[in-house]
Amino acid sequence: MIDLLIRQALVVPVVGPVRPACDVAIDGGVIVALGSELPFAARRVIDGRERIVIPGLINAHTHLALTVCRGISHGELSALYDVMWAVEQHITAEDVADLALLGALECLRGGTTCVNDHYFFAEQVARSMATLGIRALVGHTVMASGGPWVGDGELAEALAFVTRWRGRDPLVTPTLAPHAADTTTGPWLQALYAAAEQHDALFHIHVAQTDREVAAIAARSGLSPVAYLAELGVLGPRTLAVHCTRIDDADLALLLASGCVPVYCPTVHGLRGRVLRAAELRERGARVALGTDCAAGNDDYDMLEELRQAIAGQRIIRRSASLIQPAEALAWATRDNAQALGLAGQVGVIAPGMRADLVVLRSDTPRMTPCLDPVNTLVMCAGEREVEHVIVDGRILIDAGVVTSVDERAVVRRGRAAAERVIERALRAGASLPGLARS
Ligand SMILES: [Zn+2]
Questions:
Q1: 431 CA to middle of ligand 1, Å?
Q2: Helix, strand, coil distribution of the chain in percent, nearest 5
Q3: Is residue 133 located within the same domain as residue 219?
């Protein structure tokens, strides 16, 4: 008797061809077999007819607690400097716990089974991820200057956080997460990178994100942000270099030579009008990852939408009508993101021996009909409404549309209350947030 059997689904393994009328057998959190009419008895059977099964989507860059800034970062103000920093200084640890859980629940509902988060109060983020049961990499954001939370205590907490969470929960992996080159110092970056090497952890940092960062690093070192990080010795295969939207050809060559993972956030890049040369980097051998970034810039955490934005964004900057086909976009957000986050061989494809992180989507909805080419139709059309079951490590976290591990209405209620009290505190302190007035 195995734990779970999905019967007669159209399975998109990402490695190998699509498999119609295929069963997926899951036991002990692991995919144990794939095939037609598998001879297993199971404690739970999911009818997969008119359903598509894909590997869980992986979001390679989030700040989940920034759900607080959803919808308020438009207009003339800088999302980072004018909105986020004004709001974030009023966030407490309790707020982060509620806001991150809200963001993670949104991810799960959209078919994302793994997130890579970067935020202050990482202890609370990690606990919220464990509460929900989603797979997560979590790093404590470190700033030395400029932002809402700075100082030696932040560096100490980032290092202590990794020690506390290493091996504590099989689904939560700690990382090192300096904010950016201009908001930290060279010695801090080197200390965090050394800790990443010591713990075999990822080093997750924003790179060449804004003109202000580029100018600050030029004033400090005479170098570009990419060259500065390379000179410090912190640009390597364990480095996730998020954005890189302000780079020249020399920077691009440095990114390639370092083996680092540039991270492309298609919606945010599109909205800000500066798009990472992601397809070019991939063609030249870089392991580029895909993520949503935060609700202060996106304004959601929807990886299905991000697949379409990724295709459109790269076609626009390359003036191509054929770059990145839908199947490649799906493989990018699953197999390739898993590889980029150090999870290759565990998740990202559907094959025996892999951990069971899976999404079952309906193909019988108006939006998915007709479903003549299932992968193209799924990537270009599917949304949250098609996501029926979400399975993480063999555990059904969304079952026929119902969230099983937390009380969904309570999470939404608490998240909204947290956002309202943070914004109220920010407005009382004089933050200028267009469209929002003190109640
Ligand atoms: Zn970010």
A1: 21
A2: 40, 25, 35
A3: yes
- CA 100, distance to chain mean position in Å, is 13
Question: Ligand 1 mean position to 379 CA, how many Å?
Answer: 24
Number of domains within the chain: 2
CA distances from 409 to 64, 127, 402, 414 (A): 18, 19, 11, 9
Structural domain for 37, as ranges: 2-55+348-403
Query: Are residues 72 and 205 located together in one domain of the fold?
Result: yes
Cα of 102 to ligand 1 centre, how many Å? Answer: 18
Residue 64 Cα to ligand 1 midpoint, Å, equals 10
* Distance in Å, CA 10 to ligand 1 centroid: 35
DSSP SS3 for 220: helix
What is the whole-number distance in angstroms between the Cα of residue 401 and the centre of ligand 1? 29
CA of 41 to the centre of ligand 1 (A): 45
State yes or no: cis peptide before 370, omega within 30 of 0: yes
Q: Which of 167, 168, 148, 164 is nearest to 156 (CA)?
A: 164
Both 310 and 375 in one domain: the answer is: no
Instruction: Flag whether pLDDT at 244 surpasses 80.
Output: yes
The model's pLDDT over 275-324, given as tens digits with 9 standing for 90+, comes to 999 999 999 999 999 999 999 889 999 999 999 999 999 999 999 999 99
Query: In Å, how far from its chain's centre is CA 177?
Result: 14
For residue 23, being part of any structural domain is answered with yes
For the residues of 96-160, what is the DSSP string, one character each?
HHHHHHHHHHHHHHTTEEEEEEEESSHHHHHHHHHHHT-EEEEEEEE-SSSSSS-SHHHHHHHHH
Ligand 1: distance of its center to the CA of 27 in Å? 36
Q: Are 349 and 335 in contact (CB under 8 A)?
A: yes
Distance 100 CA to ligand 1 centre (A): 14
The Å distance, Cα 294 to ligand 1 centre, comes to 6
Cα of 141 vs centre of ligand 1, distance in Å, is 10
Pair (61, 49) in one structural domain: no
- Between the CA of 266 and the centroid of ligand 1 the distance, in Å, is 12
**In angstroms, what is the C-alpha Rg of the chain?**
21
> Token pair of 270, please?
């599109």
pLDDT band at 432 (very low <50, low <70, confident <90, very high): confident
Please give the distance, rounded to the nearest whole angstrom, from the Cα atom of residue 61 to the centre of ligand 1. Answer: 6
Same domain, 33 and 106: no
What tens digit of pLDDT does each residue of 351-380 get? 999 999 999 999 999 999 999 999 999 999
Say how many Å lie between the CA of residue 352 and the centre of ligand 1. Answer: 34
Mind listing the pLDDT tens digit for each residue in 50-71?
Answer: 999 999 999 999 999 999 999 9
